């Protein structure tokens, strides 16, 4: 399976879209930092730094598309037949793709964090300190920054696990991309209704969408925990369990999928 993983990484690095996405994240990250420097009265640099100057939102779209297409393109171009005919099992094929996206996601998150540090020391060195209190006063800025990135990464992988599942079931990646994107941005729209339903039927707190509130709850625990009916430990474990569950279901369908 090590060879399959190296092969997937090689194919990823050969794509022009890979380098375009990295360039886009760099320009977007630095651009938002410069914009917030010019309009600091309206955009708080310290707050934007804690969220990598909005880069995670764009990274999520990139990884959702990558997760869907890394499987669907194999079927669309019939290259899956060549891979299956080798000595590797279908499980090994899919796991190698998971590991590739995991490597990509870790790398691009670290890339955006390094860029954010660059922005802080170049544009905002005298504006705020990493040891200042963050918004809300619970954590220091650097602590809130790491917590935000870690929690956002986990909830992103909850979405990616669903995207992988859909991509493993279907031969077209478009629907998987749409579901992933809608799921990422729909939380703000449906959260109010979801919280009302949870307050009436407590068992609904275990639905997957509720666990996407994990990053926000870490920062505003006293407020959001009353709405989600879950504590931080439950949020973390719930995300991990759902990720494992969805990916296991995807592995089951992929192993039985007609080539």
UniProtKB/TrEMBL annotation:
Pfam families: ABC2_membrane_4 (PF12730)
Keyword vocabulary terms for this entry: Membrane, Transmembrane, Transmembrane helix
Regions crossing the membrane: 18-37, 57-77, 98-124, 144-167, 174-198, 235-254
S-adenosyl-L-methionine in keyword set: no
This protein's name: ABC transporter permease
């Amino acid at each position: 399976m090590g060879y399959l993983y190296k092969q997937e990484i090689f194919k990823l690095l050969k794509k022009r879209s890979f380098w375009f996405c990295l360039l886009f994240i760099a320009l977007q990250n630095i651009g938002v930092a410069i914009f917030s420097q010019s309009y600091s009265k309206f955009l708080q640099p310290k707050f934007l730094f804690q969220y990598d100057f909005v880069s995670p939102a764009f990274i999520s779209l990139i990884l959702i598309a990558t997760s869907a297409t890394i499987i669907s393109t194999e079927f669309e171009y019939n290259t899956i037949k060549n891979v299956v005919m080798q000595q590797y099992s279908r499980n090994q094929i899919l796991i190698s793709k998971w590991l590739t996206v995991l490597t990509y996601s870790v790398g691009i998150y670290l890339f955006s964090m390094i860029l954010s540090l660059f922005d802080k020391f170049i544009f905002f060195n005298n504006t705020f300190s990493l040891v200042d209190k963050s918004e809300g006063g619970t954590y220091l800025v650097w602590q809130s920054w790491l917590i935000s990135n870690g929690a956002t990464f986990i909830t992103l992988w909850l979405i990616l696990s669903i995207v992988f599942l859909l991509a493993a079931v279907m031969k077209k990646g478009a629907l998987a991309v749409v579901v992933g994107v809608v799921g990422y941005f729909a939380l703000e729209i449906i959260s109010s209704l979801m919280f009302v339903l949870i307050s009436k039927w407590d068992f609904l707190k275990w639905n997957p969408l509720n666990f996407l509130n994990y990053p926000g709850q870490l920062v505003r625990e006293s407020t959001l925990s009353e709405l989600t009916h879950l504590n931080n430990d439950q949020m973390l474990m719930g995300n991990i369990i759902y990720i494992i569950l969805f990916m296991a279901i995807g592995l089951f369908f992929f192993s039985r999928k007609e080539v």
